[in-house]
Amino acid sequence: MEIFNPKPEFAIRDEEALRGLFEPTHALAIQKCQNTLGRHAQEFIRRSPFLCIGTQSSNGSADVSPRGDPAGFVKILDERTLAIPDRPGNNRLDTLVNILANPNVGLLFIIPGFDDTLRVNGTATLSRDPGLLERMRVNDRVPKLAIVVTISEAFMHCAKAFRRSHLWNPEHFQDRSGMPSLVKIILDETTGAPADASAMRKIDDDLEADYKRTLY
What we know:
- By secondary structure, the chain is α+β, with helices and mostly antiparallel strands.
- It folds into two domains: 33-165, Pnp Oxidase, Chain A (Roll), CATH 2.30.110.10; 174-214, no CATH class.
- The protein is 30% helix and 25% strand.
- It is built from eight helices and seven strands; from the N terminus they run H-H-H-E-E-E-E-H-E-E-H-E-H-H-H.
- It has a seven-stranded antiparallel β-sheet, covered by helices on one side.
- The chain starts with 14 loop residues before the first helix and ends with a helix.
């Protein structure tokens, strides 16, 4: 694939040039931003089984990580504080290390079947409070720590992106077999996947077994 080099004459370099491309936002888009969780935002969070958390490292590199559990897994501690359990993963710890270096986080809460989303921005700390972790127990296992977020901004986000993408429309669902398995993709891009199909199936089966064993 040929390397793409953006033409500098078309680059947007300041906010004035950016805003000149768009109509002014309407007042409600500004007024909807709240610094606490109202009753509707709280209900949205209680219904949500999935969120994405955006963080930045000390040098400014960005990261977005998915988090999922049974609906209500994020605990509302008060109208300005949330707690997110940290479940077992691959131990890269990208999100957690970033929070230690730069506490600013952005959350996007998603509910299956809902086209609108809830955005929450704030600052995060990492907590090992036993009482808090006990509230997050699933399958008799408590998380090692919780991400505690102090909210600075919360607002509902409109449905346009989800409607454009037809995310929840079964007619637009894609067949997962159209791409290689997760493990094969990783092996293809690193050490190389085995050419023998049965060996590759064994690796895929091992991953599925690991999912079942280490989900919590």
